[in-house]
Every structure is written in C-alpha cells, then in structure tokens.
Amino acid sequence: MSSQLEKVKELIELRAEARLGGGQKAIDKQHERGKYTARERIAQLLDEGSFEELDMFVRHRCTNFGQEKKSYLGDGVVTGYGTIDGRLVYIFAQDFTVFGGSLSETMALKICKIMDMAMKMGAPVIGLNDSGGARIQEGINALAGYAEIFQRNIMASGVIPQISAILGPCAGGAVYSPALTDFTIMAKGISYMFLTGPKVVKTVTGEDVSQEALGGAEVHSNKSGVCHFAAEDGEHALKIIRKLFGFIPQNNLEEPPLVPCTDPIDRLEDSLNEIIPDSPNRPYDMYEVIGAIIDNGEFLEVSRDYAKNIIIGFARFNGQSVGIVANQPKYLAGVLDSNASRKAARFVRFCDAFNIPLVTLVDVPGFLPGTGQEYNGVILHGAKLLYAYGEATVPKVTVTLRKSYGGSHIVMGCKQLRGDMNYAWPTAEIAVMGGAGAVEVLYAKEAKASDNPAQVLADREAEYNKLFCNPYNAARYGYIDDVIEPRNTRFRIIRALQQLATKKVVNPAKKHGNIPL
Fold it and tell me: How far apart are CA 278 and CA 281, in angstroms?
C-alpha cells in the first residue's frame, strides 16, 4: 500500500474514532437514558446529508488530575453547519458521552468559532445542550470559556436568531447561554436547568428537592418562564425548532420567509360576529378568534403554559409571518400582571428585532391589583411592555375586541405608541375604567345624598356606558382608525399588512435605551 493510501486509511480511522465520541459503551448508556447522541440529534434536526462538521480532531489541552491520560477527538462537542428547509444554520451539540459533556477550554473555542461564523454569514445558531457543566479539572479556563460564549451570545442578540434546546442537564454557569438566546426548548423527563443543584440547595437552605422539581421542563415552562417550549421528548424538541425556523428570518437585515397561501384572504368568519358574550363579565376563548383569522388555523404558541392570561406566538396572514399578542379573557379575565407583561414584552422585542410584524388582539380589563403585584414590581414589568411597543418599528396592527381600560389600554399597542392601524369591533369598550367603577368615583357624593343611591349609580352607569363604553368615542379622535365588522377581521388585517409592507421608521440615534429591567 502506498504511503498516501495509508494516510487516507488513517484519516478514515480517525474519523470513525471521532464519531464514536466517548465510545460504544457510553453511547449505549446515553440510549438507555432515553437520549440520542449529539450526532443523532444533528441528523434529526438538519436536512438530510446537509451537515458539514468542523473541528472533528480537536483535543483538550489539560494535564491536571490525570486528564492527559484521557483524551477524545472532538472533545465533547460536535460543531458545524447545515441547512433547515434549505436555509443555512450553524449548530453545536454537546456530547454527553465525553466527560459528561462538560465544558473545557477547547470545547468553548469550538463553540465560539461557529458562533463567529454565524455572525459573519448572517445565519442563525442553534445550541443543543447536554452537559454536566464546567470541566472542574480545567478550573478558570473552563469559566473563561463560558464567558467567551456569553459575550458572543450578547453580541449576536438581535442580529441573528439564537435557539437553545436543553436535551439533558444544564447546570451552574451553563444556564446563562440559553438564557441569553431568543428561545429555549426543554424536553420533558430528560432535561433540567438550575444554577445550584439539589445537593447545594439541601446544604444551604435545608430544602429537599429533586432535580425535576427544581429545574425540570414543567417547572420552567409553568412557573419561571425560562422555557418557551416544553417538548414531549428530544425528538419533539428538534421538530419544534424546525417549525420555529419557518417563521423567522436568517438575520436582522432580512425578511421572514413568505410561504404560498391557500387560505382565501377574504374568508368571512360569521362566528366572530357572535363570539363576544352579552355580559361583560363572561369570558370567551381568544384561541377561537386567533384560529379563525390566521392562515389555515396554524399557530405556533410560545410560552403556552406560563402567564396564560396573555397569548403570544407566530402565525401567518396571506403567507406572511407575524407575531401575535392577545389577551386571554378565559384566564384571570385577561388582566395584565408582572409575568404576562414580561412575557409579552420580550416577544414584542424579538419580533421587532427580526422584522416580524405585530398583530395585537385586545381584551384587557386592567392590571391585576394587590400587594403581591405591587411588591413584585408590576409597575416596572408593565413599563417593559409599554417600552417594547413604543420602541418597535415593525408594522403594528391592533384590534380591540372588547375591554381596553386605563393603563392596560395604553400598553397594548395603542395609537400613541405608534400603532399603525388600530381597529375596533363594535363591542369594544375603550375608557379609563369600566362603568361601575367610574360612577363610584364620579358620583359618590350624589349617590350618598340621594334617597336611592343604587338607582342613582345605575342611571349614571348607563349614561357613562353610552358615552364611553364603545369604540366610537375613541374613533371620534382618530385613536381608532376604523370600527370593523368582526367577521371581516382577517381581511382587514391582511389589507393593513399589505399597506404597511413599505413602512420606514427610524428611532433616534443612541447607544441603546434603558429599558426598565
């Protein structure tokens, strides 16, 4: 055999060794845990045959604690690029079969390299996390590696989409990279995220808690809001990423993908003319409204189980990707609170950063009252949503269905926060507050002096409702551009978005604003 063929044979053998990661036994253990390997995950996520791996032959440089005796090709992370539906993406997948996926200096360098490439090429970056944290044997070098990754997450924010899937452990400092990215997907049963694990919690606080109860997918999708999508398993998590990519652009200078629309733009939804109950205190389901007006009823909801009083997610109108923000009267009457405000504000800012128009469906009676909310800083959280809408320069179409009261009216994409087209249904009530509350403030003295206070308040409430609890007073001042028939909502939104396609608004030059965090 010639020396060249021998070298080619050596290359093939080295590639085979690299693809085995930590070895067949470690791969079998990964499968026993119900988890796929890093390369299997990449194959599931990307278009078939599109993956190009980089840095397959990288090894760690650590000589502490006998580490020089244990070395694996690739050093615990698979990095490279490929395509999703033919569109370029960069990817890194941590390999739990190598040192438990722990982060070393060289692993960080590999991840940073593809993040730098993604920025240069203007393409999204996806991180598949499955790691025990920093490689303790490397000490400060591992910590420096994390910081290098975080710095790139920060620089890439708002420039290219960043998506994190948690497909195993993600603990300690490792959690901050997903937290800095745009969307985090967790897989139920196999993934968890926390800054300090159960043992440390037990030692410091005395609290006995399992990994799942401390940082599982259910916890972060229901209670903390850290997780935007809770997948049934690892495979489902990757399917969510592919679906999400269909709604977002490659970078902040491009438009989202436009898909052919088979749903008639002038389709009438007669059910919407009767969906609002006669009693203002009775709920209805906002999902029914959303499903009726978007293309083919296809809605990708974000943070579905967190702060259910507000709904956020992606849909299409005439094939155009939009972000939807909608109050949900069926949950807490659709009030805004700290969590709902924060959830919606972050989504509005993502859509604005990546040129995705906003469609806002309003039915909000106000902010949730009480010491719990005030002590939790509801003022600041509400201001986040206000700031996000006011800062956004993408096309903004707002439709008020029923209640829109007080401060909550303002923060939900009103005309004065540069709403482009503001529509209202005939059932809309746009006022400082509802009639019952208003007359108690305005006519308390008159009612007290009367022989029949209840009748006075009832008469005054009817008078107030006639004057203010309708869309026409706001329309009189041009704060509402048109009062529309509910069944025409889809068509009117599409026409508005078509008109706004060439919108150009530039915010004042500045380093950055100081959003109330």
Answer: 9
Listed range (122-136, 216-230, 295-309, 472-486) with the worst mean pLDDT: 122-136
Fold of 3-245: 2-enoyl-CoA Hydratase; Chain A, domain 1 (3.90.226)
Cα–Cα distances in Å, from 183 out to 119, 225, 305, 436?
18, 11, 15, 42
Contacts of 359 (CB under 8 A, 6+ apart): 315, 317, 322, 323, 324, 325, 397, 398, 399, 493
User: Pairing between strand 162-166 and 396-405?
Assistant: unpaired
Q: Are 52 and 75 in contact (CB under 8 A)?
A: no
pTM above 0.85, yes or no: yes
d(CA 37, CA 27): 7
pLDDT (tens digit per residue) in 370-403: 999 999 999 999 999 999 999 999 999 999 999 9
pLDDT interval class at 500 (50, 70, 90): very high
Contact indicator for 338, 381 with CB cutoff of 8 Å: yes
Q: End-to-end CA distance of the chain, in Å?
A: 67
More confident of the two residues 132 and 227: 227
Amino acid in position 461: E
The DSSP secondary-structure symbol of 321 reads: E
CB contact at 8 A, 423 and 480: yes
Fold (CATH) for 270-433+470-502: 2-enoyl-CoA Hydratase; Chain A, domain 1 (3.90.226)
The residue type found at 294 is I
Mean predicted lDDT score pLDDT of the chain: 92
Contact 496, 421 (CB under 8 A): yes
Q: Are 392 and 355 in contact (CB under 8 A)?
A: no
